[in-house]
Amino acid sequence: QAQLEESGGGVVQPGRSLRLSCAASGFTFSNYAMNWVRQAPGKGLEWVAVISYDGGNKYYADSVKGRFTISRDISNSTVYLQMNSLRAEDTAVYYCAREFGMGYGDNGWFDPWGQGTPVTVSS
Amino acid sequence: EIVMTQSPATLSVSPGERATLSCRASQSVSSNLAWYQQKPGQAPRLLIYAASTRVTTFPDRFSGSGSGTEFTLTISSLQSEDFALYYCQQYDNWPFTFGPGTKVDIK
Question: What is the pLDDT averaged over residues A61-88?
Answer without folding.
Answer: 97
